[in-house]
Amino acid sequence: MYHIPELNELSEALEASPQNQTLRYLLVKKLYNFSEYKEQFEHHIQILLKQAPNHYQAKDLLMKHYFQQQKLSACIILGEELMEAQNLSQEGYLILAKSYMKEGNSEKARDIYQEAIILDPDLTDEELDNAFRVGAFEEFDFDDEMDDGTMEKPNINFSDVGGLEDVKREIDLKIIKPLAHADLYAQYGKKVGGGILLYGPPGCGKTYLSKATAGQIDAKFINVGLNDILDMWLGSSEQKLHNFFSLARRNTPCVLFFDEIDALGAKRSDMRQSAGKTVINQFLSELDGVETSNEGILIIGATNCPWHLDPAFRRPGRFDRIIFVPPPDTKGKEEILKILLKNKPTDQIDYLKVAKKTKDYSGADLEALIDIAIEKKLEKAIETGVPEPLRTADLLQAIDSHKPSTVDWFTTAKNYAMFANQSGLYDDILSYLNK
Ligand SMILES: Nc1ncnc2c1ncn2[C@@H]1O[C@H](COP(=O)(O)OP(=O)(O)O)[C@@H](O)[C@H]1O
Ligand SMILES: [Mg+2]
């Protein structure tokens, strides 16, 4: 039959026990190496996949086979299926990318290759590199892309932020004062620099407060969404990150704000969302101001999931000051409601009452509440033709149609605070919960 004794032995053994999948996979793997046995390979792998439809290694092999046979559509279908099931091998990724490229879909090819490299930053492939890696830099004019939109001069300050008095005080003490009195700090040999990290449930004002911090000291505000940076193509993530720091250094004083900073240090389990090692290292050395100083730059990071952050971020001189931004208390909620309703038609609103009834609401939840109430008012005004101001009852009524968004966060956070609370990092969460 075969001209290789081993193949004959395997195929005889298989005849004796045709249900033995391990044996058939072994035969299939061997046959794959002989182009003259292409048909036998296909025959056996089809039987195998009928017996074991989820045999991913076999599918991976079949995919490679299709690629060699130039059966690109079949190859792509299998590759997509394996990727979906998170069972595509590294080589499989490369093959899938190349299949797309051969089919003329280079955008898709690039995405797949990028994903492969995020999963394994050391991965390279000459053919794909030539197609994508080199050109990426030339096509991109970073400065052009950045100047507008990401940098602004905020027109809000601390007085526009309701509640959060403790957090404001900490920001003042830990980054505003050192910036304003850099000389004094230097005389006492106290190092300035590094950043602060704001964490807490979503919608409680991390971004808003950071912007107000810039307004407070009449500085510019540069908002860096890390997920945007990481979406960029290969190698350009580092370049783009560097450009943000340069932009900040040219525009001092400023607040350089990194939103969703956990995207950088995400654990391997959600590597799809996270950066490679080189981006993290680039970020840390920019932060350390290794090559150029970060004088006049306030660096603020924000995250809803501080537990995903690499501990390297918390070393001295980096994000060594970690501040919990809690949901507003009753007084805070009163203030936020007043701020949000400042320019809207209202009639004797009992802020305290609304604040007390909105348990677990974040600032963003209060915003949503007002939205709902106003929509109702509008509907009515259109009906009757008479616009009426917003009243306490309208707000109280809207509470039923909006669920507070901080509860789920605390369920997760509590677990980390109780079981992964290295050096008391999350004590603030526990003391908040005990209130
Ligand atoms: N303390 C606050 N004072 C005033 N408005 C707030 C406050 N907290 C939240 N908000 C409102 O909620 C919105 C969402 O807050 P944001 O800062 O984006 O939350 P986070 O960044 O923590 O997810 C803000 O744009 C602001 O309008
Ligand atoms: Mg935010």
Tell me what the CATH architecture of the largest domain is.
3-Layer(aba) Sandwich
Widest β-sheet, arrangement of strands = 1-3-4-5-2-6
Named once each, the bound ligands are: adenosine-5'-diphosphate, magnesium ion
Give the number of DSSP strands.
Answer: 6
CATH class assignment of the largest domain: Alpha Beta
Helix content: 55-70%
The rough form would be described as: elongated
Distance linking N and C termini:
79 Å
CATH superfamily of the largest domain: P-loop containing nucleotide triphosphate hydrolases
Q: And the CATH topology of the largest domain?
A: Rossmann fold
Q: What is the mean pLDDT? A: 86
Weakly predicted, low-confidence segments: 134-145, 267-274
> What's the total helix number?
22
- Rg, Å, rounded: 29 Å
β-sheet strand percentage: 5-15%
Could you give a short account of the major beta sheet?
Answer: 6 strands, mixed
State the secondary-structure class: alpha/beta
Written account of the structure:
The chain has 435 residues and is of the alpha/beta class. The chain folds into three domains: 5-139, Tetratricopeptide repeat domain (Serine Threonine Protein Phosphatase 5, Tetratricopeptide repeat, Alpha Horseshoe), CATH 1.25.40; 142-324, P-loop containing nucleotide triphosphate hydrolases (Rossmann fold, 3-Layer(aba) Sandwich); 330-399, Helicase, Ruva Protein, domain 3 (Orthogonal Bundle). Helices cover 58% and strands 7% of the residues. It is built from 22 helices and six strands. The chain has helices at residues 5-16, 21-31, 38-51, 56-68, 72-84, 90-102, 106-119, 126-139, 142-150, 165-180, 182-187, 206-216, 226-231, 236-250, 262-265, 277-288, 330-340, 351-357, 363-384, 392-399, 407-419, 427-434, and strands spanning 151-152, 195-199, 220-225, 254-259, 297-303, 321-324. The longest helix has 22 residues, at 363-384. It is elongated and about 95 Å long. The model is unreliable at 134-145 and 267-274 (pLDDT under 50). It binds adenosine-5'-diphosphate (ADP) and magnesium ion. The site of adenosine-5'-diphosphate has 18 residues, from α12, α17 and α19.
